[in-house]
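Narrative of activities, Objective 1.

The group set out to show that a structural description can be obtained from nothing but a protein's sequence at a throughput compatible with the screening campaign. Below is one input-output pair from the validation batch, recorded exactly as produced.
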Amino acid sequence: LATTVALASTVSAHTLMYSVWVNDVDQGDGRNVYIRSPPSNSPVKDLSDASIVCNVNGGTAVSSLVQAAAGDKLTFEWYHNTRGDDIIDLSHKGPLITYIAPYTEGDGFESIWSKIDEEGLSDGTWAVDNLVSNGGKKDFTLPSGLAAGQYLIRQEIIALHEADVAFSENSARGAQFYPSCVQVEVTGSGSAVPDENFDFSTGYTYSDPGIVFNLYSGSVTSYDIPGPDVW
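Output recorded for this entry:
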């Protein structure tokens, strides 16, 4: 029975991005329209795979871009199988992290990324807990001085329930990454160009304490979010 329950929990946990809201206005179903959607809701675990950036098929551009102005509030909406369902299993606790890069039709597996938002663990509540409480929606604000242009915005959920062991040591376990990349055209008169030049191929490693992390090692009170500082 325990095996069956654990398996069911794992199956029910997987998640995908459905849509983007701009200043609380739904931009509609974005899957394979302005979101580079993977073929399934399964996680990525291999840090050496380019899919760690924009997921499977992340190097395939889609037809549209979300229109937003610098300083706008964006909301990325996640789901499990259907919109408004259980989003992700609450056992899959972990952070949500948002990055931005100049638009590319490639897979983004290069030094082009800057972090613009992060949420980890605060007063015992994980970002995933808040995501589920908010019906799958995660808000962040575009930098007010961001230069106009076309961008990729990448948001990821990192599920830590099996992260006590690195995937490189045990491929049946390891942190589960759910990245999704959205094509966005930003308007405005800003001149700030994201310049952290973060590269996932070297910036995320199995020695990172935010990637190999024991969620069940007693009372967890702190967590080091992977990646650079927020730009």
